[in-house]
Amino acid sequence: MKPAPFEYHAPTERHEALALLAESGFDAKILAGGQSLVPAMNFRLARPAILIDVNRIDDLFGVHVADDGSTLIGAMTRQRELERSPLIAERAPLIAKAMPHIAHPQIRNRGTIGGSLAHADPAAELPALAVALNARLRLQSQSGERWLPAADFFLGVLTTALEPEEMLVEIEIPALPARTGTAFDEVARRHGDYAMAGAAAVVTLDNNGTIAESTLVLMAVGDAPLRVRAIEALRGQQPTPEIIREAAESIDSEIDPPNDLHATAAYRRHLVKRLACATLTRAVERAQQP
Ligand SMILES: Cc1cc2nc3c(=O)[nH]c(=O)nc-3n(C[C@H](O)[C@H](O)[C@H](O)COP(=O)(O)OP(=O)(O)OC[C@H]3O[C@@H](n4cnc5c(N)ncnc54)[C@H](O)[C@@H]3O)c2cc1C
Questions:
Q1: Atom 11 of ligand 1: nearest residue by CA position
Q2: First vs last Cα of the chain: how many Å apart?
Q3: Fold for the domain defined by 180-288
Q4: 36 in ligand 1 pocket by Cβ < 6 Å?
Q5: Distance from the alpha carbon of residue 188 to the mean position of ligand 1, in angstroms
Q6: Which of 94, 141, 223, 256 has the most CB atoms within 10 Å of its CB?
Q7: According to the CATH classification, is domain 7-53 in 2.60.40.1120?
């Protein structure tokens, strides 16, 4: 299929893109890597009257470290760059390790972090990682800007807090505290497929080796990335294998996974408990390393 007719703009400055969005609102769509939007247009599932291609706006690309130690990632940074960037490997290894699970290199060469977050597929990796890492998202419009915690950005399946005239321009990942370990894993039918279930774990230990902070975010088991409360309640406990196993088992009461062509709800329940146990154990081991 071919897309429905549309008007095409390729601004080279951010303010031009924001002006176009302000004029067009719901009629316009931003074109980032095109890896989700273009297939949707070809199937006529999306029919934007105006396409704003932001691939020529240089200041939307790249990774750098802010004065406060957080990592700032431009919304147009390609997933392949996140996979290969030494800065990301050092400061946000959870992202570097998870990137190879997204589709295939050809798709990651074009797909962007901003596009994946704005698309908000519940089975996508980057939304879950952004929530697990307490990322903040910078949304700009012609009339100003606001920063939103990633946890408040994802509202449901393919639905975010972005207003029609807003563009996601930057993602801020806070520096990880000392003695923090992270781990990611997922299960997909074939390498490169969207996952049937996935988990991202972040664990910080205090000087006595007890858990100071623990976060587990699940993907593909709800409408949006799901932060598990039972894992946050591990604070103050010794991270023994029994404690981790028990916490992973208790996830059951917090999830309502879908039944679909790819997996039954029961199988997804089984998968996330295994993934939770494995990723939390690995995150603790990494946090314990000197
Ligand atoms: C075969 C195949 C397999 C895939 N497998 C996976 C997978 O396993 N895991 C996974 O996570 N993804 C997967 N994807 C999707 C891929 O990662 C996409 O790159 C991603 O979902 C969208 O990123 P994009 O940059 O291509 O965005 P686009 O397709 O250009 O845009 C997606 C949506 O976001 C909006 N948008 C884009 N950028 C912005 C912005 N800065 N501000 C506001 N709105 C914006 C667009 O208007 C559009 O609505 C797969 C894609 C394909 C084709």
A1: 124
A2: 55
A3: Enolase-like; domain 1 (3.30.390)
A4: yes
A5: 18
A6: 94
A7: no
